[in-house]
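Narrative of activities, Objective 1.

The group set out to show that a structural description can be obtained from nothing but a protein's sequence at a throughput compatible with the screening campaign. Below is one input-output pair from the validation batch, recorded exactly as produced.
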Amino acid sequence: MEALNFLKNMQNLPSDFLSDPSTQNQMKNFWSMLDEMAVNNPEEYSKFIKKNLEQGAEEFKESSGKSKFQGEFSYCIKTYTENKRQIVLINMCCNENVLEPLNDAREIADRGKVNTWRTIPVSFSKRREKKVEGKKVMWYFDALVHSVVIDMALKDLKFKAYVTGTVCMRLEMKEKFKLLYEKGEFDYFESYKGPDNEPSPQPQFLDPAADPEEYKKYFKGNTHTELTERTNSQKISELSLTPKPQKPKSTIEVLTSQPVLQPKVQEISEEPKPQAKKILIEEIKNYHIKISEDKRQGNVEVNEHEKEVEIFIHLPDENGMKGVILDATQKSIKVRCLSFACEVFFDKFSLDDRSISAKWLKSKKRLIVKAPIII
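Output recorded for this entry:
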């Protein structure tokens, strides 16, 4: 912060003062210090620059009259970075001032038609961290979405999983790291998580892509307009330590171009089909499996246990769970992707469809679905 204050003070000084030898000597020493830091300790230099840019952006928001909003905590997502050295805790919070979900036309989507939601705006707080055992570090974030998103996530566990994927993907884009949520390595907590055991979220400024006022500046009606001017806060946030050959896209252009996964997976089966599909039926014990004949690049195994069933689905043409749609009821589990489609029906018992879990084994290209049995 000292560096930022130094630069701001220099801007406010009269021009003749800058010609003073002592002032020039002070400036020379200051830049020499930064040059030396950049050569001898580039990591600390990067942190130093980034910290001052972030603080400068915060000060600009405060001076420009922007308001901070405090979210209402709902639940916490726990996951890991790719190397598992960082534990990431994302506190899901809501506030009515956040931009609502958008449809294909980039307009506010109908709250009652979740299947029309294509983009869920998210605003993240600054990263906070705390060292734990060994070399591991806990990273803490508050994710702010509109209240209607949280309301739907609490009603529908499948939609809650989609929100988790969307929020983690946006956080990856913002922080430039890779998370393991796609491999099923995430948990939920009912209490707020912070480095200093804070009881509730802290007030935060909205990211431009989640701010209704900022959004209206760049999108008029149904037409996606080119960004002609950037606010000073965006200029600061887009500064890089190394020059880029291409003009970077604005935050809104990047985030709103990312489609949200289809929330209502059960509606997919209602799409009109050009012709009837042939179905192969395999009878096995207390259940039977239907496999679509035109999507057979895979195989299914079912193991029955006393309290749960396990379904192993080998999908050699898939690289992860992104393209796999899972739907479940108390009497069946349906899995669909581009190369394979099947449905397992349970004839003599029912499943607890609220507690079904799925995990992707990358090395074996296998999806494992576990479902508790209820009598």
